[in-house]
Amino acid sequence: MSVTLEDARRVIAAAERRADEIGQPMNIAVVDAGGNLVAHVRQDGAWIGSVDISISKAWTSRAFDIATKDLGENSQPTQQFFGIHATNNGKVAIFAGGIPLTQDGTVVGAVGVSGGSGDQDQTVAEAGVAGF
């Protein structure tokens, strides 16, 4: 099981609606079960520097089957995953906006959102998950 292009389009559409509601242009990426990019959208006005970040958030969520927000909380000094962001050639994102996509209890992909504050990225990613 893996995210399809049709699935990714639904996730992105739901995330875009939320980004529009909060008035924050976003980069939205969806990866499949293998962590491979399926689709990406950069809304008009979204930071170009956030393109790679959104993809990294989606990849990280799939690579570790955890929301990047939760991984970030567990990667602070004295926490069990401290230093994880330096692994995988620096591709690991440890801040809010990446969430795994599950189907029947199995992770089949992930969404990653970047372009606003952590709370904004998270709420847009959550909307994408709800659209899945």
Automatic annotation (TrEMBL):
Pfam families according to UniProt: HbpS-like
UniProt-listed InterPro entries: GlcG_carb_metab_protein, PduO/GlcC-like, PduO/GlcC-like_sf
Coiled coil ranges: none
Lineage summary: Bacteria, Bacillati, Actinomycetota, Actinomycetes, Micrococcales
Protein name per its UniProtKB record: Heme-binding protein
Organism name: Paramicrobacterium chengjingii
